[in-house]
UniProtKB/TrEMBL annotation:
Name of the gene this protein is made from: EXOSC9
Record's signal peptide: none
Record Pfam families: RNase_PH, RNase_PH_C
Comp. bias intervals (Basic residues): 366-378
Database matches in Gene3D superfamilies: GHMP Kinase, N-terminal domain (3.30.230.70)
Keyword tags: Cytoplasm, Exosome, Nucleus, RNA-binding, rRNA processing
Any Gene Ontology biological process: exonucleolytic trimming to generate mature 3'-end of 5.8S rRNA from tricistronic rRNA transcript (SSU-rRNA, 5.8S rRNA, LSU-rRNA)
Protein name: Exosome complex component RRP45
Length: 378
């Protein structure tokens, strides 16, 4: 990665703390809450601004290529005092981390795989660790390492980051509590004792891990998984005695109670069904009392609904029969096709009577004309 322009010979450190709903239901994914911003700033001040890591050792080629270290912290279970656990986890991860070895020959940079050369650990000067103090009743009571419930009712919080050399790396006070100089000094003394204990535990754990890795035994997450549990990856093999299996099976069968009734042939209760097993009645499909009551209620409801449907159908058919005389004939093959309406061409009675009268009048006039012509001829 190219370095920053203002620091061409120093590597880049990036810290990120994430609060997911797995840690607590109140945390929302992908949302920068006020607590998350405050914790990220504290982690950066504790691990980056304290200069606990030699960033110049991460330089490969000055002004061109440097190593970039990214530290991601994920909270698994939030029970209070996240900053202390995050600082311990972060510094232990940095101490345990190994980067690939690099060699530079002229302008060529070669990065060696772990099989070719052993990875190189980071150059760490000291291990800063945060210790939190909760204050109650305006600083009257002091509590170290508060839990989640204690954090909800506390009046103020003081966080001190210190190393085993009694050097304060960062200090932050939050809340509405005004602290006196004696209280801060008392907290710093308690912090020195706690940091010395935690640093000793971290160093012992790292030494044991390094020894186990050299010996080729279990290390890391595999060491924390106990055997003979569901979450174990591998179970220890156990010897199974397969001798006299048939005799033991016969003894078990003879000791067992014989079935009450043995049926030589299957019983056909209804066509298409038969009994399953020998000497045991088939209870498949039998309902309990509560289920029987529910089934009876459902049958009664269905019968009532069917009766109402029949009533509605009879009423609809009667109304349809009355309206059929006045409705035109509709022919349709399907719902999607066009509907063709055929209306009968029936003429009204008045028009027929009028046409008949006109025809009779015309025929009478023609007959009278013919008679007059015949009379005038002789």
């Amino acid at each position: 990665v190219p370095p920053k322009p203002n620091r061409p010979t120093e590597g880049i450190l990036f810290f990120n703390l994430e609060l997911s709903p797995m840690a607590a239901p109140g945390f929302e994914p992908g949302r920068q809450s006020e607590l998350l911003v405050r914790l990220n700033r504290l982690i950066e001040r504790c691990l980056r601004n304290s200069k606990c890591i030699d960033t110049e050792s991460l330089c490969v080629v000055a002004g061109e290529k440097v190593w970039q270290i990214r530290l991601d912290l994920h909270v698994l279970n939030h029970d209070g005092n996240i900053i202390d656990a995050a600082s311990i986890a972060g510094i232990v991860a940095l101490c345990h981390f190994r980067r690939p070895d690099v060699s530079v020959q002229g302008e060529e940079v070669t990065v060696y795989a772990p099989e070719e050369r052993d990875p190189v650990p980071l150059s760490i000067h000291h291990m800063p660790i945060c210790v939190s103090f909760a204050f109650f009743q305006q600083g009257t009571y002091l509590l170290v390492d508060p839990s989640e419930r204690e954090e909800c009712v506390m009046d103020g919080l003081l966080v001190i980051a210190m190393n085993k050399h009694r050097e304060i790396c960062t200090i932050q006070s939050s809340g509405g509590v005004m602290l006196v100089k004696d209280q801060v000094l008392r907290c710093s003394k308690i912090t020195a004792v706690k940091v010395a204990e935690i640093t000793e535990l971290i160093q012992k754990a790292l030494e044991n891990d390094q020894k186990v890795r050299k010996e080729g035994g279990k290390f890391g997450f595999a060491e924390s998984i106990p055997n003979q549990k569901i979450t174990a990856f591998k179970m220890e093999s156990a010897a199974v005695d397969t001798n006299n299996v048939e005799e033991q099976a016969e003894e078990i069968i003879t000791k067992a109670d014989p079935p009450s009734e043995v049926f030589a042939k299957p019983i056909l209760h209804t066509p298409g069904t038969a009994q399953i097993g020998e000497g045991i009645e088939n209870s498949w499909g039998e309902l309990e009392e509560s289920e029987r009551e529910e089934a009876a209620e459902e049958e009664a409801e269905s019968e009532a609904a069917a009766f109402e449907c029949q009533k509605m159908e009879t009423e609809d058919t009667s109304t349809m029969g009355e309206n059929k005389k006045a409705e035109p004939i509709i022919l349709s093959d399907s719902e999607e096709e066009e509907v063709v309406v055929l209306e009968p061409q029936v003429l009204p009675k008045k028009t027929r009577a009028q046409t008949n009268l006109k025809q009779e009048n015309t025929s009478k006039k023609t007959f009278n004309k013919r008679r007059r012509k015949k009379r005038a001829a002789p």
